[in-house]
Amino acid sequence: MKKALAFGFLAALTAVTARADTYPQRPITMVVPFAAGGPTDIVARIVAEPMSKALGQQVVIENVTGAGGTTGITRASQAAPDGYTIMMGHMGTHGAAPALFKGLKYDPATSFDPIGMAAGTPIVIVAKKAMAAPDLKSFVEAVKTGGASINQAHAGVGSVSHSTGVLFDSLIGAKPTLVVYRGTGPALNDLMAGQVDFMTDQIVNVATQITGGTIKAYAVATPERNPSLPDVPTTKEAGLPGYEVSAWNAVFAPKGLPEDVRKKLVAALDAALKDPNAKKRILELGGTVPKDGEAGPAALQKLVESEVARWTPVLRNAVDANP
Ligand code: MLT
């Protein structure tokens, strides 16, 4: 009997060790819940490359759009927790969505194994080049008096552009027409073409166009100016001190990863964020890389819990105050 038990234990141990040595054996899918070319996709592709190197298998981006990012995140949350499906979530899908998205099919704080923060992405108030207002104060007046004739782009209820946009509208007491896109990548194309008037978007998506002069930036919603956009004032400098908001993008896996697999994914993201090219790319687009204490799964879990707690009352009040 004892022999059989020992044998069984040995077999189980060999199987676990074998998996630890062999994961990953095939490409890994990283679900990006918004359209290609937008900020979440940009951050995902920046980190996917060095993660592929670290893991020895390709991390393949799959854009699964719709419903403010919740379609893609729901699908990824229901995938097998085997390390072959991960996702790039953010302050919208894993922070604001519970407040704004009715019937969410996942819980940001319990449906996932957090892998780690990928990039901080400050919010910029951007408008089409033809927007006449010369500064934020007159832009705010134009949006208020323009009412429904002003078109504001966003990427779906609960997305970053939607939640930070709703906050902006409520703060200034404006009711523009909200125009939904499958991501702020496509929204930016329309902004550049003058088909839509403005949006509040993540800096990594719009920094290049602002510098290139194809769209206008009224302010960055952070306490300090952003090094990639030195001439863009902060909201405080521009006369809207109450509007300070930053987003973030982070890697999650479905809940229940085997510990050895989870550790390999955490290590691969850590290596990616130490990759000089990846860091350079995130910084030159105005993003931030996690500082010590902000990286890793425990910090991300704490952030998700605090962001859901923070955004829920703020966004519910914003919607109630400005239905
Ligand atoms: C995107 O990648 O399109 C954005 O993250 C969408 C959003 O949350 O605004």
From TrEMBL:
Keywords: Signal. The keyword Signal applies. Residues 1-20 form the signal peptide. SUPFAM superfamilies: Periplasmic binding protein-like II. It comes from the Bacteria. The keyword Cytoplasm does not apply. Belongs to the UPF0065 (bug) family. This is Tripartite-type tricarboxylate transporter, receptor component TctC. It comes from Methylorubrum suomiense.
